[in-house]
Design a protein that fits this description.
By secondary structure, the protein is mainly alpha-helical. 65% of the residues lie in helices and 3% in strands.
């Protein structure tokens, strides 16, 4: 039995597809899969890694020490748990869920003590391509007056453009990270589909950040990527043009014509559905408005900053925000995690929250590897101005951990 385990462990070290780094990357893709499926199914991506870890422990392999840059995260996890004991929030269930998922991802990062980039992108790209194609088909039908019946029934409201029944910003980060993976794995033919889908998803952050993809591509592959970048840009623009039909969409958007719902059985007409446009030009024009752009964020940030103090205040701000932006029954928060951590734990933990971002990024930057640096950077705009705390967006945590995995580790007990 021991001999068989030793042989398998040695084989897994030679075979990248069975190594801790690759399987750890697959496990880190779980938060992205959980956006489409339940965590019950997404967590299955971690099973191969845990089986390999068990075999490694049986074999007596030594553990590699993670960098101290994860210390701010550990401190913040402890802060949140303690704050739950000494303060009240009606959204305690969401806080506990965030803590459990963050601890789970930290556990995966510690166990997968090798570079996880390849496994992460290998798991991410197939689902990203499938969802992007579905999104583009759905957007093309929408612009021509057709709605998908199953989506109309399962979504709270029918999503605009290529967006699906998940948060459009999370979807934008998903397609952006997958596009970065295509650059690393030289799957340039897939880029137009991801870029076009992201550009039509209603995510302004995707539209702003996608312009950096050619720069990253040139940094990874050199000047040979310039021509490919131009070709991809042209095909992406043509795909956006082919999918979009503003003239047709305007007639349905303003109610001049009823939508046709496509479902199993007979198609039916539907009146009274309001769906916004989501082309890049339209979305960029809303950047400064007070409904969906930065204007709406400023109200949350202002209230959050008015509540900060030198001393910890716990989770009481949830009630304040809920009553300020709803009839005290909906989950609202500052939409800037550093402010949330400042309110919860005082000025000391505001500094810890800044270290949560800066310290790992500094270690990644020192490795001078373009893809990990880019992966960390594209996650920052989503994490810094979205969600409640630093743990509220597991997909951002996953990107940060995968990027940090490029930092080499030492075996415990060695200098």
């Amino acid at each position: 039995m021991t001999s068989a385990i030793n042989k398998f462990s040695a084989f897994s070290q030679r075979n990248m597809l069975l190594g801790k780094g690759f399987l750890g990357g697959v496990a880190m893709a779980a938060p992205f899969y959980a956006e489409f499926f339940s965590w019950r199914w997404a967590a299955l991506l971690t099973v191969p890694l845990f089986l390999l870890i068990v075999l490694s422990l049986i074999r007596g392999e030594k553990v590699k020490k993670p960098p101290l840059a994860i210390l701010p995260m550990v401190l913040l996890l402890m802060l949140h748990a303690v704050a739950l004991v000494f303060s009240h929030t009606m959204f305690a269930g969401q806080v506990v869920k965030d803590l459990l998922i963050a601890s789970f991802l930290l556990f995966i990062y510690v166990l997968a003590d090798e570079d996880t980039l390849s496994g992460f992108f290998s798991a991410l790209i197939p689902l990203a391509l499938v969802s992007a194609l579905i999104g583009l088909v759905k957007a093309a039908l929408l612009h021509r007056g057709y709605l998908l019946g199953f989506m109309l029934e399962s979504c709270a409201s029918y999503p605009a453009g290529s967006a699906l029944c998940i948060n459009y910003n999370n979807l934008g980060l998903f397609w952006l990270a997958a596009a970065l993976g295509c650059i690393k794995m030289r799957l340039w033919w897939a880029l137009p589909f991801l870029i076009a889908a992201g550009a039509l998803s209603s995510s302004r952050r995707f539209i702003v950040l996608m312009v950096f993809l050619p720069i990253i591509w040139v940094m990874v592959q050199g000047r040979s990527a310039v021509v490919k970048s131009v070709i991809v840009a042209i095909f992406s623009a043509l795909l956006i043009y082919a999918v979009s039909d503003p003239v047709s969409f305007a007639r349905f958007q303003h109610g001049d014509l009823p939508y046709t719902v496509l479902s199993i059985g007979d198609a039916v007409s539907l009146n009274g559905v309001s769906i916004n446009r989501s082309t890049p030009g339209v979305m960029l024009s809303t950047m400064g408005d007070g409904t969906g752009g930065t204007g709406s964020r400023i109200k949350f940030w202002s209230l959050g900053l008015s509540m900060v103090s030198w001393l910890p205040q716990g989770w009481g701000y949830h009630q304040v925000f809920s009553c300020a932006f709803s009839p005290c029954d909906m989950f609202h928060y500052p939409h800037m995690p550093v402010i949330s951590e400042w309110i919860i734990g005082g000025v000391v933990f505001a500094l810890v929250a800044l270290a949560f971002y800066i310290w790992p990024f500094w270690l990644v930057l020192r490795q001078r590897q373009s893809v990990p640096i880019a992966l960390f950077l594209i996650a920052l705009p989503y994490s810094l101005i979205s969600g409640d705390t630093v743990f509220s967006l597991p997909i951002c945590l996953a990107c940060m951990f995968v990027a940090l995995s490029c930092v080499p580790r030492r075996i415990a007990g060695t200098p």
